């Protein structure tokens, strides 16, 4: 990811803190692709207490190729990514982690199996690295927090699964919209007239990587959006109608079987039901 402004980094420093356990009709938040759910405050605080802070430069590899991932890593500042491939061939697809989300370690938390990928910083970043051997004994003394951690790790795996499904079965335009849905859930503010404002969702190259799309396909999609007046950029921010990405939201909902989680019928209704953002930058 190229150089980003301090305003953009400040805008993504505090995302929406929603509950993965909300089941009330019309208030449940779907599992989002390419961005895991936020880590709850109690678990964040514990990881921060037990872990060690590490600063990362842009494009710095968090774990060298072949090194065992035996920690849980939480992002505190900036953006990190995880991709398939390795440091030689380059990542083939990626998902992202912003402040308050796991950078890595969630996938093999219990099994310690290989994580199959590369973890790196998209921007300058700060992470907390907590060895699982330190965290697990503490979690075992708190059944409530331990159960929450299991539910969160499962939600992270489901997030990856939705991302794979989109890459396998949906066209580029829908994949890009699905990423916008994910980004808006975490960083979007809905106005009374049904428009969503949020920080621009990464750079062009990063959007290509996340959606597993070519630069040409991505450029063509964004050109259409702009020509339709649906995608209006202003500096580090973008505004679009909530209805514009509803087809991606409906696809994500239709891909799931029925469950106890009752999602809102439309993306606008979901945005209306979400907890408010507290970031003062926008």
Automatic annotation (TrEMBL):
Gene3D superfamilies, A to Z: Jelly Rolls (2.60.120.10)
Domain of life, per lineage: Bacteria
InterPro entries the record matches: cNMP-bd_dom_sf, RmlC-like_jellyroll
Protein name as it appears in the record: Crp/Fnr family transcriptional regulator
Organism phylogeny: Bacteria, Pseudomonadati, Pseudomonadota, Betaproteobacteria, Burkholderiales
């Amino acid at each position: 990811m190229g150089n980003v402004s301090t305003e953009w980094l400040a805008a993504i420093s505090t995302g929406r803190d929603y509950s993965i356990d909300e089941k009330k009709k019309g208030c449940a938040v779907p599992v989002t692709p390419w961005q895991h759910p936020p880590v709850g405050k109690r678990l964040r605080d514990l990881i921060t207490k037990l872990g060690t802070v590490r600063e990362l430069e842009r494009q710095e590899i968090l774990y060298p190729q072949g090194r065992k991932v035996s920690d849980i890593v939480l992002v505190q500042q900036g953006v990190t990514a995880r991709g398939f491939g390795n440091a030689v061939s380059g990542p083939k697809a990626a998902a992202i982690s912003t402040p308050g989300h796991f950078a890595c370690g969630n996938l093999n938390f219990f099994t310690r199996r290989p994580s199959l990928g590369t973890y790196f910083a998209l921007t300058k970043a700060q992470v907390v690295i907590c060895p699982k051997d330190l965290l697990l004994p503490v979690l075992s003394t708190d059944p409530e927090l331990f159960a929450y951690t299991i539910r969160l790790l499962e939600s992270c795996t489901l997030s990856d699964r939705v991302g794979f499904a989109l890459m396998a079965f949906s066209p580029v335009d829908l994949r890009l919209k699905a990423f916008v849905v994910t980004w808006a859930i975490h960083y979007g503010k809905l106005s009374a007239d049904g428009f969503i404002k949020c920080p621009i969702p990464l750079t062009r190259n990063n959007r290509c990587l996340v959606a597993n799309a070519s630069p040409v396909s991505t450029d063509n999609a964004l050109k259409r959006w702009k020509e339709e007046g649906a995608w209006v950029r202003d500096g580090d921010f973008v505004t679009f109608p909530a209805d514009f990405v509803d087809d991606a939201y409906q696809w994500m909902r239709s891909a799931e079987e029925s469950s106890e989680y009752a999602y809102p019928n439309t993306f606008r209704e979901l945005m209306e039901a979400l907890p408010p953002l507290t970031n003062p930058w926008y």
